[in-house]
Amino acid sequence: MDRNGNTYTFLYASVMVVAVAAILSAAAFNLKPYQKRNEEIEKMQNILASVGVETTPANAADIYKEKIVSTYVIDNSGNKKDGDAFNIDLKVEHAKAANEQSLPIFEAKVDGSTKYIIPLRGTGLWGPIWGYISVDSDKNTVYGAVFAHKGETPGLGAEIATGKFQAPFAGKKLFDSSSKLVSIIVAKSGEQAPAEHKVDGISGGTITSKALEKMLLDDLTNYEAFLSKK
Amino acid sequence: MAKEGLFSKKNQKLLSTPLNGNNPVTVQVLGICSALAVTVQLKPAVVMTLSVMAVLAFANVIISLLRNTIPSRIRIIVQLVVVAALVILVDQILKAFVYDVSKQLSVFVGLIITNCIIMGRLEAFALGNKPWPAFLDGVGNAAGYGLVLIIVSFFRELLGSGSLWGYKVIPESWYVANGGFYENNGMMILPPMALITVGAIIWFQRWKNRDLIEK
């Protein structure tokens, strides 16, 4: 066949595309279990990091089993319901009406006291941001927080994933003295807010900072009933 | 024609010239962007080198095997599809087996597709040569690229973070914070210093090898 003819070129391109597609799907299918395992381990590491427990991928699963004493799902009035907390996809839940959402809670035992870990998910400047915030057994004082992002600007919004940004969350309060949920204000410079509810935002990363503040308020509002129940 | 040995003089040259005299980064000045991006630490630089080596060697072999069948009008597209498929494979494998490194390299693995060294070697070498020399050419060029990456990341990690391969090599007591005299150079972590380091390598190489200096 004429190697420069249209028929040959079209045939060649079609066969090549089908062959490449077959190879890639086979690879993706076979590697899926390993990748899923890695993602689960990363999730365990993030959950543990929010209560200040550092892990490596090798020991994360064991430490998770030891520290996380119970996981359960609640609805937005604070009652337990059926479900597997670890495998809940917040993106799916957030698309539902507030009273139909399944809200996961992870209970950790750290230094003898109980911490409640709440997963968060929101929208940053360029893509999703997510994280975990842990509160003390009084369900008011923040014990720790971790955040991660898909594609925030390196050096600016991406700083939410650093310890420097996350550390000040510890010790902040979620409720004010009249038991109203204030959540945490991620303040830009000069912004006034009570010190016990305020952490510093990122200069140059205001949109990401404010998106994170909104994520905290939106998600914690769903948990308000649970957190108010002492 | 006598059969050529697998590692004949000519074939050895394919492996060795890209390391120095015809280095893809310092002489041909290709693949600079990724050389700046992944050289903050040694480990990602080495993984990037191995990934580029795998992609380039296999892409060279595949294109060389197909060289007599590829319709010339769509040859660039064929090369691109082969490279893209290999890159996706590498990315999937990294995600499955070295997850933390794959997170660190993130977008740069995908950007191997746009690494000019790869398309350059496919177009310039694989399309006109047998699979074995093409394989050697791929390994050689990736090694030449990797050599620069590793040298740059060695200095950047040592001077910028005081560590090598993630391990601290500068004693804690040397640091100003602990009453010592030493401080890491934060500039080394930023991309401009990678460019300057590459520039220093090019300077050093031309000082040693006068033939490379353009008249």
Structure summarized in a few sentences:
Chain A is of the alpha+beta class. Helix content of chain A is 36%, strand content 22%.
Q: Can you count the helices of chain B? A: 9
Greatest interface (CB-CB under 8 A), with counts per chain:
A-B, 20 and 20 residues
Helix content of chain A: 25-40%
Structural class of the secondary elements of chain B? mainly alpha
How are the strands of the biggest sheet of chain A laid out side by side?
2-1-3-4-5-6
Can you walk through the features of this model?
The complex is a heterodimer of chains A (230) and B (215). Chain A has 230 residues and is α+β, with helices and mostly antiparallel strands. Chain A has one domain. Helices cover 36% and strands 22% of the residues of chain A. Chain A has helices at residues 6-49, 60-67, 90-94, 163-166, 206-222, 224-228; strands at residues 68-74, 80-81, 103-110, 113-123, 128-135, 142-149, 185-187, 198-200. In chain A, the strands form two sheets. A six-stranded antiparallel β-sheet of chain A has the order 2-1-3-4-5-6. The radius of gyration of chain A is 22 Å and the shape is elongated. The mean pLDDT of chain A is 88. Chain B is mainly α. Chain B has one domain. In chain B, 61% of the residues lie in helices and 2% in strands. Chain B contains nine helices and two strands; from the N terminus they run ααααααααββα. Chain B has helices spanning 9-16, 32-37, 42-66, 75-97, 99-105, 107-110, 116-124, 131-161, 191-208, and strands spanning 163-164, 167-168. In chain B, strand 1 and strand 2 (167-168) form a beta hairpin. In chain B, helix 3 (42-66) runs antiparallel to helix 8 and helix 8 (131-161) crosses helix 9. The radius of gyration of chain B is 19 Å and the shape is globular. The A-B interface holds A 3-4, 8-9, 12-13, 16-17, 20, 23-24, 27-28, 31, 34-35, 38, 41-42, 57 and B 69-74, 77-78, 81-82, 85, 88-89, 92-93, 95-97, 99-100.
